[in-house]
Structure formats: structure tokens, C-alpha cells
Amino acid sequence: MHETAERFVVHGGRMLSGGVQIRGSKNAASKAMVATLLTDEPCILENVPFSEEAAITRELCERIGSSITYGDDHTCSIVTPRIREHSVIELSRRNRIPILAFGPLLVRAGEAEVPFLGGDPIGHRPIDFHLEALARMGAVIERRERSYYATAPYLTGTDIAFPFPSVGATESVLLAGVLARGRTRIENAAIEPEVQNLIAMLIAMGALITCESDERRIEIEGVRQLRGVRHRIIPDRNEAVSFAVAGLATGGAITLRGAEPAHLASFIAVVRAMGIIVEENDHGLYIAPPSFVGPMDVSSVSIATAPHPGFMTDWQQPLAVFLTRAKGTSIIHETVYEDRLGYLKDLARMGADISVSDECPSDSPCRFSGRTFNHVARITGPVSLNGADIEITDIRAGMAHIIAALSATGKSVISGVAHIDRGYETLDERLRTLGADITRV
Ligand code: EPU
């Protein structure tokens, strides 16, 4: 990530409303770019967002041997005639994508070295599922001072059962299994829309994959080679939720253009339960408060984050800001990451009534139960927020800070803007078109 001293200055209290085009998914685009490494034929990706994450992934692929050009309209052409470099350790600590290159590098070059990973500080974030699965497929993996180095003359399909449906580890095994010898079966697989988008791309490249979502089971029959593809990245469901909540928290209505309602089902169910209006129309997905006059009358709600099709862990941060406006006490139970509620202390500083604890609600046990992770928040409203100076430390928490600043009274100065640029294309410009007073300085 490019370090930057840039900040956002926000004058809050202005209602956001209007239509916004949802860009392609950051977390699907980066995986699709890595998947192009599996073939020597040209691939064309449509709807790639111009975010820093895509730029970092581009650097990774170019280092490995890809030629990449961006066309108009968010199209990206990638061709990797041969693997020029199997080691990408200098891309250390910038995001979580390099581990996904292990599979393509091993099946095409027999050798791979990836750095210890970066990404957001939202918990321990181990990669043991990735490494154990690849080792079971025949990779010999050595931990070095700042990297993992692996070799394998070829990979062999095997049965893998994940202890938790990890998105990244499921993607790692898909990217390794498609060109492995024999059949790979993943039990307890992640079935997120981004994973499904990757599967669709791999199938279009000639891979043999079946996915039984209800069973969380994926089967991959290895093939000898894959061909080039033209593939479209799904709309970003995190961006969709961010804009929707930015509207709601400021009392306005937003139309999400190009969003996929099926990918947002659990979010839509939660906001409808609060009294929010959600309608699909010819322009997109319209999301509005129950009324535009007087104090907002919305109910509190209890959510537990969970793997898809549950309420996504990346949605609780923007939602938390809106929960400060709901009547009564809402609960957020974060069951995916053990340490993803740190940002709430900033909301409390801005005037929110929030308590955080390690005690799971009695009706919602989770794998963090009985451990000392502060993963349960109680937010009591309605309250008004006041502007503040805030330092962003991760993408989704940063989005919550920006929404809080937009809905607060007075001025906020937000630093750590690079985290936002990693995940959102020209966020400040697009918020301004909806009526926000936000400036990059
Ligand atoms: N886990 C392990 N071992 C592993 C892998 C995961 O214990 O080897 C645990 C994690 O520590 C976590 C849980 O499994 O507690 C789920 O992690 P997962 O592997 O699913 O997450 P990820 O693939 O690293 C992706 C997104 C995240 C998103 C999560 C959950 C990307 C690049 N990142 O992370 O997005 O929150 O899935 O849906 O796709 C973001 O975009 O800001 C972001 C953090």
C-alpha cells in the first residue's frame, strides 16, 4: 500500500441521497487476476475496480511474468506466457493475495515463495488452513525468515476438510486443485459470492468443478491445462452496503446501481427488520429510511456475523454507525474475526453509547465462546454523534469512521486514507456526488 499523508476533512450533517454505480468487487477481482496465472493464454477481466488492491495484485502478477493492460470501462487484459519469477517476497505485508499465488506457481513452475501476509489488523489471521491443504496436496513447504518457500513436482488431489469455511483457503485449494492430478474434495468450504465468481471463471477456463453449496462441498477434477477466458467480476457487496448505510445514517435514500440483491440478502433482511424500505426498481436497489421528516424511527436489532449466506463480517462496521440512531439496544456478535470491534472506541468518542465484551449472547454461541476476545458489542440509541479527529487502521472500520463523520455534527479530520483507497475507488468523489461535504487534503 502506498503510504500517504492525505486526509479527509468532513463537515457532517448533510443528507446523502441519489444514485451511485457500484464497482466490481475488490475481493473477487484480485482472485481472478491471480487465476489468470493458471494459463499461458490471454484473459480479459471485466468490471475490475481501480482500487489500490487491484494495483498491488497487478504488481504481483507482473513480477511473476504477466503483461497487463487496462482498457476503457474497467477492463483488464492479462497474459502470462511463462512464469518468469517464482518468488514474490518483496511484496511483503501489503495485502493477503500473495498466498493465493502458491497454487498457480506450484502447478506451473514447481516452486513458489511468498511473503508473510499483510492486510487489515483485525485479529491473528493465520494461514494454517492454506499451508496444511497445500502440504496434503504434495507441496513441501519451508518457513523462512520472512517467507514461505514451497516445492512440488506436481500436486495431487486429496480430501480436505476445513475447521472453518475460510474464503481464502477455499480459493487457495481451488487455484491449486484445478491443475492437480486427480480429484480434490473440499468439505466445509466457503461459498461466498466471490468464491462462486472464481469457480465460474475457472470453469469457463476449462476446469472441472462442482459445488454443492447446501453441503459446503466443492469437488475439483484436475485437468492438464486451462485456456484463456473473458470473465466479469461481480459487483462489490461491501461497497453496496457502505453506500446504503451512508445514506441511511444521514437520513437519506440511496439507489445502488448495478448491485446484486441476491448477494445482499442477509443485509436487506436486517435493515428491513429495523423498518428500512428496500425496493428493487428499474434504476437499481432503492434503500430509504421510513420517513424523511422528524426524528428517524428505526428499531434496534441483533446480528451475528457469519460466513455466507450469513451476515457478512465486513458489514457490521458501517451498520454499527446506523445502530447508534436506532431506538433501544442493538447487539453485534462478531463470530468470524476475534478482534474486529476496535473501531467502536472511536464511535464512543464521537458520542455513541457502546459497551464491548467477550460474552456471547446466550442464544448465539460461537467458537470464541469462553475466550477473552472482545467480540460482542451493545449499542444503545438513539444518540447524535459529534465530529472528531480519527485515524483509520483498516478498510471496513475506516468506512464506519467516514460514515460516522458524515452523519455527525461538526467537522472531522480522518487520517490513514490509504486504507480506504485500497478498497474503494475514488470514494470521496462518489460521496460528493451524493451530497457529502468531504475533501481530500
Ligand atoms: N482462518 C484460519 N486459518 C486460515 C485461514 C483463515 O484460522 O488459514 C480464520 C481467520 O483467522 C478468520 C476466519 O478463518 O477467523 C475467516 O477467514 P477467511 O480466510 O475467510 O478470510 P480471508 O480470506 O483472509 C476474506 C476477505 C475479507 C473478509 C473475509 C471474510 C479477501 C482479500 N479478504 O479474507 O475481507 O472479511 O474473507 O469474508 O478476500 C476486506 O475486504 O476488508 C476483508 C478483510
Automatic annotation (TrEMBL):
Binding site for phosphoenolpyruvate: K26, N27
Catalytic reaction annotation: phosphoenolpyruvate + UDP-N-acetyl-alpha-D-glucosamine = UDP-N-acetyl-3-O-(1-carboxyvinyl)-alpha-D-glucosamine + phosphate
Pathway it works in: Cell wall biogenesis; peptidoglycan biosynthesis
GO terms (BP aspect): cell division; cell wall organization; peptidoglycan biosynthetic process; regulation of cell shape; UDP-N-acetylgalactosamine biosynthetic process
This protein's record includes keyword Ribosomal protein: no
GO molecular function: UDP-N-acetylglucosamine 1-carboxyvinyltransferase activity
GO cellular component, one term: cytoplasm
Swiss-Prot/TrEMBL keywords: ANK repeat, Cell cycle, Cell division, Cell shape, Cell wall biogenesis/degradation, Cytoplasm, Peptidoglycan synthesis, Transferase
Places the protein is found: Cytoplasm
Keyword Oxidoreductase: no
Catalytic site: D120 (proton donor)
Cross-referenced SUPFAM superfamilies: EPT/RTPC-like
Pfam family, one: EPSP_synthase
Residue intervals of the Enolpyruvate transferase domain: 11-431
Enzyme Commission number: 2.5.1.7
Top-level EC class as recorded in UniProt: transferase
Recorded superkingdom: Bacteria
NCBIfam families reported for this sequence: murA, PRK09369.1
Function in brief: Cell wall formation. Adds enolpyruvyl to UDP-N-acetylglucosamine.
Recorded family membership: Belongs to the EPSP synthase family. MurA subfamily.
PANTHER family hit by this protein: UDP-N-ACETYLGLUCOSAMINE 1-CARBOXYVINYLTRANSFERASE
Protein name per Swiss-Prot or TrEMBL: UDP-N-acetylglucosamine 1-carboxyvinyltransferase
Species assigned in the record: Candidatus Sungbacteria bacterium RIFCSPLOWO2_01_FULL_54_21
Underlying gene: murA
